[in-house]
Amino acid sequence: MNNALDGKVALVTGGGRGIGAAVALRLAEEGADVALTFQRNQQRADEMVDQIKTAGRRAVAVRADSAEPAAVVGVVDRVADEWGRLDILVNNAGAFLLGPLEQLSLDEFDETVAVNVRAPFVASQAAVRHMPAGGRIINIGSNIAERAVFPGFSLYAMSKTALIGLTKALGRELGGRAITVNLVNPGPTDTALNPVDGPNAGTITGFTALGHYADPADVAATVAFLASPDGRYITGATINVDGGFTI
């Protein structure tokens, strides 16, 4: 087993399902102890904890609403206090609210910005209080930030585009502390929200150069690389894991 992350502690927000779950498991397989947050599905979160423990690492799942800043800070501080350190933060939790511009409400706007923009900022702010040199912050965005080919994505695309600026600025600010900050933009990925056999999958696949969806493990592999020692000289970067959707 590759132990590139042996002795490291990671926190993955929204780690109970989909891409977040794949990231949490991959980091554990690479040697990290992993905490994850979830909002609703306790059973799925418990299953993830069991899988991580089966990989031989410590694991904990914490129910937390990423729209609540106090909950975000509380999870970061809890992990650092109970496990003695925090080396890797993966800001993965997201709100996916779509609709025509004239039908989107201000409540939906506020929720999207709270989860997709404010939560990564707040979590990063809390995490760097604990992070040693060599720390990693990895934001999970979306290829929609670079290519919105369908109507109804204005709110979601706006929120994910904000992560580009956050990533670049934090990469510059934290570079002197040897903490890297990067953004991974997944493209079409086979998850419960966007299954490979869904009604629009054929159209979506047609926009990719490779002609197929990603598996969540493909995104997790990129996150694991950025979290590893091999990723130490990459910061402020946006990496598209989208099968060529944006080219």
Automatic annotation (TrEMBL):
The protein's name in its UniProt record: 3-oxoacyl-ACP reductase
Encoding gene (name): fabG_4
Similarity annotation: Belongs to the short-chain dehydrogenases/reductases (SDR) family.
Domain (Ketoreductase) ranges: 8-207
PROSITE patterns reported for this sequence: ADH_SHORT
UniProt entry keywords in alphabetical sequence: Oxidoreductase
Naturally occurring in which organism (per UniProt): Micromonospora andamanensis
Domain of life the protein comes from: Bacteria
